[in-house]
Amino acid sequence: ITYLHSSTDSFRPETGIILGTGLAGLVADIDVQYEIAYEDIPHFVHSTVESHKGKLIFGTLAGKPVVCMQGRFHYYEGYSMKEITYPVRVMQALGIRNLLISNAAGGLNPAFSESDLMLITDHISLFLPDNPLFGKNISGDRFPDMSDPYCPKMLASARRIVQEKGISHVQEGVYAPVPGPQLETRAEYRLLRQLGADAVGMSTVPEVIVAVQLKIPVLAVSVITDMCIPETLKKAELQHILANAAVAEPRMTLLFRELIKPLD
């Protein structure tokens, strides 16, 4: 924190943003004041995924001060859950009062289409092999309640913005995180759907767990970058996934920008 304060003239963000695979374009809408590479920040690990640029961005979005992770960390990169979620604790120490998260996900719900946005209303974390709260309690509740991990007030605001701004192709559903990095088999997709998941991905929930522990309201959005219906499954291609993310990104950016305006 001392390093970041000295590097940003004690910039005080109100909202934290974590951007997922292929979704770093939101930074273009930020009036950037400071930009710091992860490798320069004490105790931050490095982002090793090609589409994650690995920068902490400080600036204003819709006139509000934000701190934005341009790229996140994943369990499959070999990092511990505590390392993955350390940036959430840092953002809380910097003063954020809200957290917006995006990710790229595979669609399990047959009613979805590629490039849809999905407001995450709940998640199933049972497939994660570790938990960021295991071990000695660092800060926050020892036993955080997860009955409403995604802030109902922020979800209501998102629904209102979708209607008022006419944002198309917006769904709602349950997100299931898996460790990765391999994609799932047809049988695994079928099981996840039977358990009630609407989308599957390799991120987000560890950060949400820590945010809830720290009492930071969270809104998370999945971009459906490929469909994972067992009966019609096609081989996943990274360029196809990134292309679908690019189609959805302007709608996600509009939603995040409008959400931030009234937040305090």
Jot down its keywords.
alpha/beta; 9 strands; 264 residues; single chain; 6 helices; five-stranded mixed beta barrel
What does this structure look like?
- The protein has a 5-stranded mixed β-barrel, surrounded by 4 helices.
- The protein is built from 6 helices and 9 strands, in the order αββββαββαβαβαβα.
- The two termini are 22 Å apart.
- With 264 residues, it is an alpha/beta fold.
Instruction: Tell me the major beta sheet.
Output: 5 strands, mixed, barrel
Give the % helix: 25-40%
Which ranges are low-confidence, i.e. pLDDT below 50, for 5 or more consecutive residues? none
If helices are DSSP runs of H or I spanning 4 or more residues, what is the number of helices? 6
Rg measurement, Å: 17 Å
Kindly state the number of beta strands. Answer: 9
Q: Give the spatial strand order of the biggest sheet.
A: 5-8-7-6-9
Name the shape in a single word. globular
The percentage of residues in β strands lies in 15-25%
Distance between the termini: 22 Å
Order of SSEs, N→C? HEEEEHEEHEHEHEH
Structural class call reads alpha/beta
Mean pLDDT: 92
